Amino acid sequence: MPTTLRPRRAVLEVPLRFDPAAGNQAAQVRLALRGAILAGQLAAGLRLPSSRDLAAQLGVRRNAVVIAYEHLIGDGLAEARQGSGTFVAAHLPSPRQEPESRAPFRLKVAPRSAFALGQAHVDPVVLRRLANAVRWRIARASLADLAYGKPRGSEALRVQVAAYLAASRGMRASPDRVLIVNGTQQALRLVVAALFAPGDIAWVEDPGYRVAHDTLEAAGLRLAPVPVDTQGVDVGVEVRSASNARVAYVTPSHQVPLGVTMSLARRAALLDWA
After folding, report:
1. Listed range (35-49, 97-111, 182-196) with the worst mean pLDDT
2. Residue 256 within a domain
3. What is the DSSP letter of 16?
4. Do 212 and 261 fall into the same domain?
5. Does residue 151 sit in the same domain as residue 188?
6. CATH number at residue 61
């Protein structure tokens, strides 16, 4: 009888260093792969094993590898190629290497379109579940629930946020260092009030998140637009024109509104400037 040859599983030849203190399995795998990539142990363009194969090799859950790969892609350290798998990013320059200049995007976004920024999708099923959960919670509210509470926000919520950050991002944060805010704009306003003064220059992406730009301007900061291309913000352009900026507001993993991921070269250049 003819025999069927099964494809050999891809194996990662480089031994990875895991830090149990980094958090859950996904965080440990992500940080181990990140360290190997930045150390040059995993070459640029190298095809990584499938999530199933790497999970079997490392003895971890497959979902942990999937999450780790997604974070590496978001960090610009890996690339997903449809039908081919996940690869180490093709370009991993040294932090001080000047990135290649690309032609900027030009995109107009209709303020009231179906995909407008800040416009939530109304799902009747989700709203009904939310309404039921709110009614259930209010019916069981305690005196503490109806009081002013702590300035940082609900302690129970801060505990859950800290646990989420540890599990999904590998960030170790105690609940007393978590601050609950009403949204991005309040958080940004608090940061600006604590760290900067009116008249300070802020780099902002062009095109970028208009609402955040308005918040920075309302706080008295002077905005210096930075062009965005396929690699993210072009730091070199702004260094030459406004090198005395005090802050840079960027959206590196999913740039708003273009959706591009900032390349490792641009991230390194931005940190080098900072």
Report:
1. 97-111
2. yes
3. P
4. yes
5. no
6. 1.10.10.10
Distance CA 186, CA 150 (A): 17
Write the pLDDT tens digit of every residue in 86-134.
888 887 745 444 444 444 444 444 444 555 666 677 788 889 999 999 9
In which element (H, E) is residue 248 found?
Answer: strand 247-249
Average the pLDDT over 136-146 and give the result: 88
pLDDT tens string 65-82: 899 898 888 888 888 888
- For the entire predicted model, the pTM comes to 0.56
Residue with tokens 């540890």: 166
What domain range includes position 222?
Answer: 184-273
| Distance separating alpha carbons of residues 228 and 204, to the nearest angstrom | 10
Asked if residue 257 has a cis previous peptide bond (ω within 30° of 0), the answer is: yes
Take residue 76 and report the two structure tokens written for it: 């610009």
Of the three residues 67, 88, 109, the one that is the final residue of a domain is 88
* Contact partners, residue 130, CB within 8 Å, separation at least 6: none
- 100 vs 271: CA distance, rounded Å: 17
Between CA 194 and CA 86 the distance in angstroms is: 41
The single-letter code of the amino acid at 216 is L
The two structure tokens encoding residue 103: 């032609």
Residues 73 and 261: beta-carbon distance below 8 Å: yes
Q: Are residues 193 and 169 in the same domain?
A: no
Among 162, 177, 192, give the residue marking a domain's end. Answer: 177
Structural domains counted in the chain: 3
From residue 69, give the alpha-carbon distance in Å to each of 14, 31, 54, 85, 94.
16, 11, 11, 10, 22
